[in-house]
Specification:
The complex is a heterodimer of chains A (350) and B (587).
Chain A: H1 3-6, E1 8-10, E2 13-16, E3 21-23, E4 31-33, E5 46-51, H2 53-63, E6 68-73, E7 79-82, E8 85-91, E9 99-105, E10 108-112, E11 134-139, H3 151-164, E12 170-173, H4 179-189, E13 196-198, H5 203-211, E14 219-221, H6 227-231, E15 234-237, E16 254-258, H7 265-270, E17 275-277, H8 285-295, E18 299-305, H9 307-316, E19 320-323
Parallel strand pairs in A: 3-4, 4-5, 5-6, 10-11, 11-18, 12-15, 12-16, 13-14, 13-15, 16-17, 18-19
Antiparallel strand pairs in A: 1-2, 2-3, 7-8, 8-9, 9-10
Chain B: H1 2-13, H2 17-30, H3 35-43, H4 54-62, H5 67-77, H6 80-87, H7 127-136, H8 142-152, H9 155-166, H10 175-185, H11 190-196, H12 205-211, E1 233-234, E2 246-252, E3 255-263, E4 269-275, H13 286-289, E5 296-306, E6 309-310, H14 313-321, H15 327-332, E7 335-345, E8 348-349, H16 355-369, E9 374-376, E10 379-380, H17 385-393, H18 395-400, E11 407-414, E12 428-432, E13 436-447, E14 456-467, E15 470-479, H19 485-497, E16 499-503, E17 506-509, E18 518-523, E19 525-528, E20 536-539, E21 542-547, H20 558-566
Parallel strand pairs in B: 1-12, 7-9
Antiparallel strand pairs in B: 2-10, 2-11, 3-4, 3-5, 5-6, 5-7, 7-8, 11-12, 13-14, 13-17, 13-18, 14-15, 16-17, 18-21, 19-20
Classes of the chains: A alpha/beta (350), B alpha+beta (587).
Bound molecules: zinc ion (2 copies).
The site of one zinc ion has 9 residues of chain A, from loops.
Chain lengths: 350, 587
């Protein structure tokens, strides 16, 4: 069996003909397997949806109860038979509930990894390496200049700034699903125990994380807090809110932005950020290349991001590699390099 | 060096002066000697060593990375040092599974998350170590040394190191700000540090010891030290000043120098001539140095005087252009010091005295020195601002006599002003006679005539003013000369590529706050005009410079021209011929 017969890339997502399903389709389909809750991967309107319980819950939070015709929750490590193929979910280490989907048929195994990272994250299950024949990888940070380092060190910079400027608010732009909760958890690990303030758009998702047993300490809404209360505080908001009227309630804030894009100065400067924090929910270059090599896959398909460099790298290692032109990925989370002014969070109410 | 790099990085993103101050002060407080001293030297621009060429950096990275990946990365980042800093294959960044040559042996239990434990972590070099090594290292050893450092630093550290060794370190803070931050460590006035500064060398151990209350104030052992110069502001509002509070003198078109003579330990006098920034230029002017026999420190203007007449700046420029100081040069271009202030008389520091008193001491000092190569800059007597305005308009009859050629305006100094380092507010004003300059934005261009008929060579330009819907540009003049042929080509190309509308031979050119071309326009005078929407007309405007570097948003405002008009700057200049602009003022 050729890999293309098991999973065929189409412009609206990867289709498994023998199994009768799509993975992360970008238009409504009868049966969808969803890797994680970011809106460019998890869209409403499908007939049946298979995903982890967390991903299903997050979709319900964002799209309402009727986001799909029917749903089925799948555990990590659980194998289902769908038509002529089997499907197994493995942790992707990207956000809460994120999964890699291993599709197998007649001895051929393809892993669609969705978005993933190999760096530690206290808010989700760690990435699991799944040996396979074909590995489908993202390439959001697929250039050797993207080296994300230790996220705890970046939060250390934030803590240092809070110490130097105890009277200024630190306003941290972070994507609502995954990044925000990870940043909060890292701030707690750094020993900060005062309340952390949240923009309205991230309250629901963050409370869901807490319900799932992730300790984020005391959280308060920015809404209703006085100027004095906010003046020395740490507050998190979606990147788009940093340039909005909403942000004016903070007197002389230090504007921070937690994103892998902050690695490149010109990018950080573009967004008017004062304290860039290089914290990413995607694998960096070293992570991508180490993972690709470790899967043992002889063939690599590259979905969204900087495909050229990763494809070149894989070929130079004697691997077969090609980009998949899937449109419409990268609307949410870091896949979109636009800085605070224009990020994918605009659909959510403030 | 990682900490210093982080400070630099943070400073680069922080727009507020006060917040920069706090960041620097926090760093200086938290960092031990001598590291913080070298950092202060780097921040104040006091470091010098031979810089590495970008080619060397490229070679280093080419030996370590795939050329295609490098090009893709460089293309994306756009800056060589930053690309190399980020791409550098640091041993610390290698992941567990990186050894992909061997068949993979995946182990599903531990995530391949963390960094390689195996690779021993090299010790990152300190800034002190880098600077001390660079100052002695031979050129041949530099690449290997640099590679070792790059291996041991993090991304930000590598970036700062590469910027430092290639001379591309742009800190975004002034030396003054860094010194102010240092002063704040001990709750001292920035001027106290400024005054000590010329006598100090990196890593400034004594300075920090004093600031932290652990030692006495450092004293200079140099018998002829530089004292930080006092600088003037451009005159803003003459009418608001009280003529009785000021002394006026000519502003000479020469080079500002400080001539210092002091007795060294062995009893001999040592003389040094400094530029206004404290650079020792004694070697270039031996003829003047030998004239300065009395201990003291004179602030004055270096000029060329032939047969008792001050020569124009062009003549001085000819002497400055010659590298070798030959007897012929000394004879043809005799250096002269026109003295206007006295900072030290013998061993008395006069800087705290009011200017009027220093001036008396200066007059006595010059008399005592009694050397034709040093004379007093005469005062301009005036009863009213009208009288001074007239003298400025015609220096020849206003008292400068045959030296009028070398007058570029007048200086106003408060009688009671102490001699303060830097540019203190309200003490000294300079009121130049030069053609006036504004930065204006190109709005319309028209095709020229004759041999220029194929070029857009007539330009209408405007300045900002408040309009109904925010700031807008209002035309203030038209110019069609002042630029070189090369510049004409450049403007013509700009006009053709940025036309927003056409009206016959005239093109409207893009002129938005962020897009457009800023022209530095020089002119001889301003007058009220009802023909122009701006209410002003320029006399004899010309393009003196193309400011490709300046966003239109930063061009001048109509208020600036209004103020010039009100200040009487608009009086026509007497000679009219003095139009060639001088860009090569040294140092
Ligand atoms: Zn994602
Ligand atoms: Zn994605």
């Amino acid at each position: 069996m050729r890999p293309e017969d098991l999973l065929s890339p189409t412009p609206s997502g990867v289709c498994c003909k023998p199994g009768g399903f799509f993975i992360d389709p970008t238009r409504p389909v009868d049966k969808a397997v969803i890797t994680h809750g970011h809106s460019d991967h998890a869209r409403p309107g499908h007939g049946a949806v298979l995903a982890t319980q967390e991903t299903l819950d997050l979709m319900r939070l964002r799209y309402g109860d009727n986001f799909a015709g029917s749903t089925q929750a799948v555990h990590y490590g659980e194998t289902l038979t769908l038509g002529g193929a089997t499907v197994t979910f493995h942790p992707a280490g990207h956000v809460l509930g994120s999964a890699q989907v291993a599709v197998a048929c007649k001895g051929l195994k393809i892993v669609a990894s969705g978005d993933y990272k190999d760096a530690p994250d206290p808010t989700c299950a760690p990435f699991e390496l799944v040996p396979c024949d074909v590995f489908i990888t993202e390439a959001t940070f697929g250039l050797p200049v993207f080296r994300h380092g230790d996220a705890a060190d970046e939060v250390g910079k934030l803590m240092h700034s809070v110490m130097v400027f105890p009277d200024r608010a630190h306003l941290v732009g972070a994507y609502s699903l995954g990044k925000a909760q990870r940043v909060i958890a890292l701030i707690r690990r750094a020993g900060y125990d005062k309340p952390i303030y949240l923009h309205g758009a991230m309250e629901k998702i963050t409370h869901y994380y807490q319900e799932r047993g992730i300790d984020l300490g005391e959280l308060k809404p920015v809404r209703g807090a006085s100027k004095e209360e906010l003046s020395g505080a740490i507050a998190l908001c979606p990147p788009s809110a940093m340039q909005e009227l909403w942000a004016r309630r903070f007197p002389d804030p230090v504007t921070c932005f937690a994103s892998g894009w902050m690695r490149v100065r010109a990018r950080a400067r573009q967004g008017g950020v004062q304290l860039p924090l290089v914290i990413s929910d995607h694998a960096d270059w070293d992570g991508l290349t180490a993972t690709v090599a470790a899967t043992g896959a002889g063939e690599i398909w590259v979905t969204h991001g900087q495909e050229d460099a990763l494809v070149h790298w894989a070929k130079s290692r004697g691997l077969q590699a090609r980009p998949l032109a899937i449109v419409d990925y990268g609307d949410e989370d870091e896949a979109q390099p636009e800085l605070p002014l224009a990020s994918g969070e605009s659909g959510e109410a403030t | 060096m990682n900490d210093f790099a982080e400070l630099l990085d943070r400073l680069a993103y922080e727009p507020s002066r006060n917040n920069k101050l706090r960041l620097i002060a926090d760093y200086l407080r938290a960092t031990p000697d001598p590291e913080r001293g070298f950092a202060l030297a780097a921040l104040t621009g006091a470091l010098s060593f031979q810089h590495a060429k970008p080619g060397m950096i490229r070679t280093l990275i080419a030996e370590r990375t795939d050329p295609v990946l490098f090009e893709l990365s460089y293309d994306y980042v756009g800056d060589l040092s930053e690309t190399v800093a980020l791409m550098w294959p640091s041993p610390q960044a290698l992941r567990i599974f990186k050894s992909d040559a061997s068949p993979p042996t995946p182990d599903p239990s531990p995530p391949l998350a963390s960094l390689a434990e195996g690779g021993e972590k090299k010790r990152a070099p300190s800034l002190s170590e880098v600077i001390e090594t660079l100052s002695t290292l031979g050129k041949a050893q530099l690449p290997a040394q640099l590679a070792r450092w790059l291996d041991a630093l993090d991304e930000t550290g590598r970036w700062a190191l590469l910027k430092l060794v290639t001379g591309g370190l742009r800190i975004g803070v002034s030396a003054r700000l860094a010194k102010t931050a240092a002063a704040s460590l001990g709750g001292k006035e920035p001027n106290e540090v400024e005054i000590l500064w010329p006598g100090l060398v990196a890593p400034y151990i004594e300075l920090f010891a004093w600031l932290e209350g652990r030692a006495e104030k450092p004293t200079s052992s140099d018998p002829a030290p530089f004292r930080p110069a006092m600088l003037a502001h451009a005159l803003e509002d003459l009418a608001a000043l009280d003529p009785a509070a000021f002394i006026a003198e000519w502003k000479w078109d020469g080079i500002r120098v400080q001539a210092v003579t002091g007795a060294s330990d062995d009893g001999h006098n040592l003389t040094r001539l400094y530029s206004r920034t404290g650079e020792d230029v004694s070697k270039s002017f031996p003829d003047l140095v030998e004239a300065l026999r009395l201990p003291g420190a004179i602030d004055g203007e270096l000029l060329i005087v032939r047969d008792g007449r001050v020569q124009s700046f062009n003549v001085l420029q000819q002497r400055l252009n010659r590298k070798a100081v030959t007897p012929k040069l000394l004879q043809e271009f005799p250096a002269h010091l026109r003295a206007y202030d006295l900072l030290v008389d013998g061993t008395d520091d006069l800087r705290d005295l009011p200017f009027a008193e220093r001036r008396e001491r200066l007059e006595a000092f010059v008399k005592r020195l009694n050397d034709p190569r040093v004379d007093l800059s005469p005062l301009i007597g005036f009863e009213s601002w009208a009288a001074l305005t007239a003298a400025r308009a015609d220096p020849a009859t206003g008292g400068a006599g045959p030296d009028a050629e070398a007058v570029e305006g007048v200086m106003l100094k408060r009688r009671d002003a102490p001699y303060l380092p830097g540019r203190p507010k309200g003490q000294w004003w300079k009121w130049k006679r030069d053609p006036m300059n504004v930065d204006a934005v190109l709005m319309y261009a028209q095709r020229g005539h004759g041999k220029r008929s194929s070029y857009y060579s007539d330009y209408t330009f405007g300045v900002w003013t408040g309009g109904a819907t925010g700031d807008e540009l209002v035309p203030v003049g038209k110019a069609y000369f002042g630029f070189t042929d090369e510049e004409l080509h450049q403007i013509d190309r700009f006009v053709r590529n940025n036309t927003t509308e056409r009206f016959g031979p005239v093109r409207e050119v893009v002129h938005a706050p962020d897009k457009g071309l800023v022209l530095e326009v020089a002119f001889e005078g301003l007058q009220r005009s009802s023909r122009h929407k701006s209410g002003l007309a320029m006399r004899f405007p010309r393009i003196s410079r193309l400011r490709w570097d300046k966003p239109p948003r930063e061009a001048d405002r109509l208020e600036t021209l209004e103020r010039m008009l009100k200040n009487g700057d608009a009086l026509p200049s007497p000679s009219g011929e003095r139009v060639q602009s001088r860009r090569a003022k040294l140092p």
